[in-house]
Amino acid sequence: MLYPNLLKPLLFSMDPEFAHDLGTKALQITGNLRPIRSFLKKSLQSKKNPVEVFGLTFPNLIGQAAGLDKDGVFPAASEALGFGFVEVGTVTPLPQPGNEKPRLFRLPRDHALVNRMGFNNNGVHALAEKITRSFPKHQRSVPLGINLGKGKSTPLEGALQDYCDAFDAVAKVADYITINVSSPNTPDLRRLQNHEFLEPLLAGINQHRVNWAKSVSANSPPCLLKISPDESFKNVEQIVEKALEHKFDGIIACNTSIDSTCLKFSNPAPTGGISGMPLGEKSNQVIKFISMLTDGKFPIVGSGGIFDFESAQKKLDSGACLLQIYTSFIYHGPFWPSRLASRIPLANNLL
Asked: What is the pLDDT of residue 43?
């Protein structure tokens, strides 16, 4: 009860980004203290049987979504808190400061957040060095995903090179890689989901993966595509078709939404991507549609609006085989991942 009764009121009295940075530092310290980390692992990690999806083994279905730990500062703490997998980023090839502050907002009555961070990060090479040093493959017990984006100043025509450069920097340290073409906070990024950009982008990434695997005599890490909840079903169908054609291993559905009509209490809302409870049904509809298109045979990581046990189960019932949380972690606290993992049964459509 420490978090809801004491820590949450204290943190929610602070500026959201300052509170996030403070929490990041606390989790980094926790991850660096082996006795505490070991105690948390024994106390919190789910005892359920592991599951396999796109060739990886996951201790449980509950993952940490990208955005919570952009620079890979505390994956060891996330592992200890009971996450079944951890996704860090979004990172870009070069460091960038992101958008001007304020850029993170709480909407407590809607159980939501709004962010317009703009891929603020220290760059992909700094992330790769940090992961290699503090959370290497042979010492972690959960899969690590790394979420990649294009630089703010990179024109859309140069996006492929950004993703390929970032891929090269992290391919040996990541268990899977996510291609983020759906953040609303980098100008024009979502246009990469349109056919004229998506086709050459996904074809180029696929060919780059093949060439990389040959050059290092190893398999490419699985590659997922993270999409927007605001696309039409017609466009989602085209995106999924191209992802399958170019041998992507799965879809993350969905990123944040710019559709403020999902909010009940907070209109007008700050500009940016909405996450949290209001996104639940919107995300579920996209998951159901993709599952229907692919006969449930294309792995879907469900993200957006998982705020309690029932909403998590709805994601699985819609067709997701893994789940990711972010906003509910902020609202419910550090013990939420293990509580959620202990209550969620194994998905029926694991791939």
From this structure: 84
Count of CB atoms situated within 10 Å of the CB of 315: 28
Q: What is the pTM of this model?
A: 0.95
For residue 11, the domain's CATH number is 3.20.20.70
Q: What is the Cα–Cα distance from 191 to 183, expressed in whole angstroms?
A: 10
Q: Is 90 helix (H, G, I), strand (E, B) or coil?
A: strand
User: Has residue 267 been placed in a domain?
Assistant: no
Residue 252 · residue 301 · CB < 8 Å: yes
Catalytic residue list: 183
Residues of the chain with pLDDT under 50: 349-350
The pLDDT score that the predictor gives to residue 44 is 82
Domain that holds residue 311: 2-98+119-260+275-343
Is residue 144 within 8 Å of 174, Cβ to Cβ? yes
Tell me the CA distances in angstroms from 146 to 91, 131, 175, 260, one per residue in order. Answer: 8, 10, 8, 28
Question: Model confidence over 27-37: pLDDT tens digits?
Answer: 999 999 999 99
Decide if 350 is inside a domain: no
Is position 348 within any domain? no
